Amino acid sequence: MFVDTVDINVRSGNGGNGAVSFHREKYISAGGPDGGDGGRGGDIVIEADSGMSTLMDFRYKRKYHAENGADGSGGNKTGKDGKKLTIRVPDGTLVREKQSGAVIVDMTGVKSFTLLSGGSGGWGNSHFATPSRQAPRFAKSGLAGTSMEVSLELKLLADVGLVGFPNVGKSTILSVVSKARPKIADYHFTTLYPNLGVVHFGEDASFVLADIPGIIEGASGGAGLGHDFLRHIDRCRLIIHVVDISCSEGRDPIEDFETINEELRRYSPVLSTRPQIVAGNKIDIASQEDGRERLQKYLEEKGIKLFMISAATTAGISELIKAAADELSKLPPITTYEPEYVPDQSPQGSPDDLVIEAHGDTWSIEGLWLERLVQNVNFTDHESRMYFDRMLRNNGVFRRLEELGIKEGDTVSIYGLEFEHIE
């Protein structure tokens, strides 16, 4: 099965907690604090794998969580860092922030990208020893990892895209000019997913050709299969537009040409400006000479080259490939997408973002900054509680409560902890 879009949940590892410990050894009194730091949480890393051609691996697994860092321990021993988690994707995969759809990274020509960094490990109590505070009984908790929902979208890395109505011979052309072996049959929608082939010409020259299936009238709005695969034309530098010159199915090649181009324009206005050459296929069974001349004149007025070919007999194929190669030599490289979104690798929050709500004489305070502060406080230790009080006062939390009308004796609730407000 060909899978080219998928949503996944990723989370980097939490940092390990710092340790509260004191050195104890026979004949040594007042050994002092020796709590070690916590280990760093594992990163989430995206790697491009040239051996992958689909996002099928993500069909059944949608959650990817890196390893947490280990807690520190006594003797100033630092906890072990969490292992990074590597997520492999095909070349050409776009990684987007799911909610906004903004591009985080285009894995075209990018071997490895750190999507999310693991949380830092917390400090052990040995970091907090001072001449006036020789026995700190608190340590810092490790910072939590970061989680987010991302969308993976595969856009094939092809230089040239074959487009046209079903059953005009696109797959046959691909099989003739490359070693690709797509399924070929005399009915519509034989090809159910894009096929790639490498076309060699000259001694060392080559380009990648993609057969884009299922584009019909209304494809840009969801009809047929084309709406699923139009994205794969986005990177193509050149389009070979295949039309049935034989009119064997009663369709007019000029109408077919205009219909497909209109679908490309509706999907992306940029595609309508992409260079094109037209391959009039099935000349071996064509009988309407005036139809060829009419198409030739129509395309000449638009400045588009027409090549009469027969994919079945290979007539005209070499001229078509040479023209495509010549055109590619004049065109810029494959399109890559610039980043539009930078994940917040270590969200700390801000005191200004705290949400304060009154419920009678009880006031609740919530926010990421406060949550992280609570994690780093040992409420059984007097000095640690004083540190917590100073942080609230210095960052304007008490002032905001007073401005909102808190009274003496009211209860302040902070993540399961309750305090009585004293003026």
Quick structural overview:
Helix content is 19%, strand content 23%. With 423 residues, it is of the alpha/beta class.
Structure description:
Helix content is 19%, strand content 23%. It has 3 domains: 1-154, GTP1/OBG domain (Spo0b-associated Gtp-binding Protein, Chain: A, Distorted Sandwich), CATH 2.70.210.12; 160-328, 3-Layer(aba) Sandwich (Rossmann fold); 351-420, GMP Synthetase, Chain A, domain 3. A 6-stranded mixed beta sheet has the order 10-11-9-12-13-14, with helices on both faces. Strands 3-1-8-5-6 form a 5-stranded mixed beta sheet, with no helix packed on it. It has helices spanning 170-177, 226-229, 253-267, 289-302, 317-328, 368-375, 382-394, 397-404, and strands at 5-11, 44-49, 63-65, 85-90, 93-97, 103-106, 112-116, 147-154, 160-163, 195-201, 205-211, 238-244, 276-281, 306-308, 355-359, 362-366, 411-414, 417-420. By secondary structure, the chain is an alpha/beta fold.
